[in-house]
Amino acid sequence: MPAKKKTKKVAKKKVTARKKVAKKAAKKSAASRKKVAKKKVSKKKVAKKKASRKKVAKKKASKKKAAKKSPAKKKVAKKKASKKKVIAKKKVAKKAAKKTISKKKTTGNKNKKAMGKVTNIKKTPAPKSQKGKSATKKKIAPYKQKRKNEDYMGPEHTEHFRQILLAWKTELMEEVDRTVHHMQDDATNFPDPNDRASQEEEFALELRTRDRERKLISKIDESIAMLDSADYGFCEICGIEIGVRRLEARPTATQCIDCKTLDEIKERHLG
C-alpha cells in the first residue's frame, strides 16, 4: 500500500511538472508571437512613414517645378503685355502726328487766305551781309578818273572811299537792328519740338552772321581811322599802293595782292 501511494504521488508530480512546462512553453510561444506581431506592425508603420515621406518629397518637387514654370509664364505674359503697350503707344503717336499734320495744313491754308486778303505788308529782307555789300556797290558807282596825273589817295579818292565805308557801316548796323527786332517778334514757344529746333537753329545762324558783321564793322572803323591819318590805300607790309579797283572790291583791304597771295600760300602750307 505505501508503495502504491508513492507511485501515485510521483505520477502526480510528473503530471504537474509537465503541465507547468507546457504552460511555460505556451507563454513563451505567445510572447514570441506577440513580439513577431509587434515587429510586423512596427515594420508596417516604418513603411507607411517612408511612403508618406516620399509623397511629401514628391509634392515639394512638384511645387518647385510649378514655381519655376510660373515665373517663366509670368515673364512671357509681361513681354506680351509690354509689346501690346508699345504697339498701342505707336498707334497713339501716329494718330497724334496725323492730327498735328492736319492742323498745320489747316492753319497754313488759313494763313495763306489771310495773307491774300491783307495788303500793304512790309517784307523784311533776309539779314545777310552779302546783300549789304551788293547794295553798297549798286548805290555808289565805281570811281572814274577826272583828270590826268591824278594823285593816288588824294581828296577825291579819300572822299569816294569814305562814302563807301560809311554806307557799308550804316547798312550793317541796320541789319543788326533788323535781326534784333526779328528775334524779339518771332520768339514764340512752338509746341512741336522740331519747329522749336528749327527756330533755334535759324537764330543761331543769324547770331553767327551778326558776329562776323560786328568784326567787319570794327575793320571798317579801323580803315576810316586810316583814312583820317592818310595811311589808307597802302600795303602795311611792303608799302606799295593797293590799288583803287582792289579797294573798291574790298574796302577794308590792308595788303596788296602780292602780299595777300603770299600770306594765303603760307597759311595753306602751315595749316
Structure write-up:
There is one protein chain. This protein is an all-alpha fold and 271 residues long. Among the domains are: 32 residues; 142 residues, Four Helix Bundle (Hemerythrin (Met), subunit A) (Up-down Bundle). Helix 2 runs antiparallel to helix 3. The longest helix has 116 residues. The radius of gyration is 58 Å and the shape is rod-shaped. About 11% of the residues have low confidence.
Please supply descriptive tags for the structure shown above.
271 residues, mainly alpha, Four Helix Bundle (Hemerythrin (Met), subunit A), 6 helices, rod-shaped
Secondary structure: elements and pairs:
Elements: H1 2-117, H2 129-139, H3 155-185, H4 193-228, H5 244-249, H6 257-270
Overall mean pLDDT stands at: 77
Rg for CA atoms: 58 Å
Q: How would you describe the shape?
A: rod-shaped
Briefly note the structural class of the backbone.
mainly alpha
CATH homology-level superfamily of the domain at 129-270: DksA, coiled-coil domain
The helix fraction, in percent, is over 70%
**CATH fold field value of the domain at 129-270:** Four Helix Bundle (Hemerythrin (Met), subunit A)
State which percent range the strand residues make up: under 5%
Give a nutshell description of this structure.
The protein is mostly helical and 271 residues long. 79% of the residues lie in helices and 0% in strands.
